[in-house]
UniProtKB/TrEMBL annotation:
Catalytic activity: (S)-malate + NAD(+) = oxaloacetate + NADH + H(+)
Amino-acid positions noted as binding NAD(+) in the UniProt annotation, renumbered to this chain: G8, A9, G10, N11, V12, G13, D33, N96, I119, S120, N121
SUPFAM superfamilies the record matches: LDH C-terminal domain-like, NAD(P)-binding Rossmann-fold domains
Taxonomic superkingdom: Bacteria
Keyword Amino-acid biosynthesis found: no
Name recorded for this polypeptide: Malate dehydrogenase
GO terms of molecular function: L-lactate dehydrogenase (NAD+) activity; L-malate dehydrogenase (NAD+) activity
Gene3D superfamilies, per the entry: Lactate dehydrogenase/glycoside hydrolase, family 4, C-terminal, NAD(P)-binding Rossmann-like Domain
Taxonomic source organism: Phocaeicola vulgatus CL09T03C04
């Protein structure tokens, strides 16, 4: 029996659980939240769609009861506060570091073999914190950001190209921040053809800029940060792992020399499978892309340093 736990049954967590259940990614999906009754209510509401939508996944909700999460194969951490318009993700560290650390420690007590997918922001730093606090092998701690950012990149490219987003390929690497994302326009394709065959350099720069502030744009529109694509991107990463799909997905992972960086979690393409990160893929970046990656990693490293200031490490 396969089991996935989603911690935090707010906007992102509940959406992720819903997509996991609808797509029958696991036999059981458990939602856990600190807010009394919310997970239970959302689980019951979702279970009442099973007959309408035709899925067989069992969805369980619980209030801070970690026993219910026992023996999960994958655990998704979404607990923590989202940003408000005008804020950066990095400003969330003071509140979210404590939440993510205690949640990760509780999870490990009941699911010692779980692969952990971190979504809470600032995501690269929360992934690093989880890795350091739990001391697990690096293949089992995965930050979800690149899957979402790449999906947004493909959306903006498809809008510029006037084509179906499913016919566009592209990846975003680097940190999951407004200024740290690196949309790889040079590698993006439409039906296997470089997008530069169809779009001017100026247009490509516009697409890259829209991608980088994709989360901030939605936060301004919604008054809180986005959840449909983030929840679906979390479920996409979980499915790639649970179904051992061997897909290449940009994720925030612990680097030990890859891309010239060490002792940091940052977004790079990885092959996802039943062991979590099966392999880190090293892309042949040019000098400009390498410089952008180094600057992105430096910014993530600065946020990581704040973990000591807030007493999380
Ligand atoms: N990595 C990404 O790509 C990405 C995308 C979207 C959102 N996020 C981040 O995900 C987080 C959640 O966003 P949201 O929109 O779902 O927020 P939300 O406020 O809707 O939900 C967060 C939930 O976490 C719960 N929670 C708080 N402390 C908890 C604890 N100790 N144990 C269990 N649950 C706890 C809250 O009760 C709440 O229900 C935010 O930090 C946001 O910035 C990241
Ligand atoms: O923008 C945010 O703060 C939430 C998330 O990281 C996103 O990119 O949607």
């Amino acid at each position: 029996m396969s089991k996935v736990t989603v911690v935090g049954a707010g906007n992102v967590g509940a959406t992720c659980a819903n997509v996991l259940a609808f797509n029958e990614v696991a036999d059981e999906v458990v939602m856990l939240d600190v807010k009394e009754g919310v997970s239970e209510g959302k689980a019951m509401d979702m279970m009442q769609t099973a007959q309408l939508l035709g899925f067989d996944t069992n969805i369980v909700g619980c209030t801070n009861d970690y026993e219910k999460t026992a023996n999960s194969d994958v655990v998704v951490i979404t607990s923590g506060i989202p940003r408000k318009p005008g804020m950066t993700r990095e400003e969330l560290i003071g509140v979210n570091a404590g939440i993510v650390k205690s949640v990760a420690q509780n999870i490990l007590k009941y699911s010692p073999n779980a692969i952990i997918v971190v979504i809470s922001n600032p995501m690269d730093t929360m992934t690093y914190l989880s890795l350091k606090a739990l001391g697990l092998p690096k293949n089992r701690i995965i930050g979800m950001g690149g899957a979402l950012d790449s999906s947004r990149f493909k959306y903006f490219l498809s809008q510029a190209l006037g084509c179906n987003a499913n016919e566009v390929e592209g990846m975003v690497i680097g940190g999951h921040g407004d200024t740290t994302m690196i949309p790889l326009t040079r590698f993006a394709t439409y039906k296997g053809m470089p997008v530069s065959n169809f779009l001017s350099e100026e247009k490509l720069q516009e697409v890259a800029a829209a991608t980088m502030v994709g989360g901030a744009t939605l936060t301004k529109l919604l008054g809180t940060s986005a959840w449909y694509a983030p929840g679906a991107a979390g479920a996409f990463v979980v499915e790639s792992i649970i179904h051992n799909q061997g897909k290449m997905v940009p994720c925030s992972v612990y680097l030990e020399g890859e891309y010239g960086e060490s002792d940091i979690c940052c977004g790079v393409p990885v092959i996802l499978g039943k062991n979590g990160i099966e392999k880190i893929v090293e892309l042949p970046l040019n000098e400009e892309e390498k410089a952008k990656f180094a600057a992105s990693a430096a910014a993530v490293r600065k946020t990581n340093a704040a973990l000591h200031e807030v007493g999380a490490l």
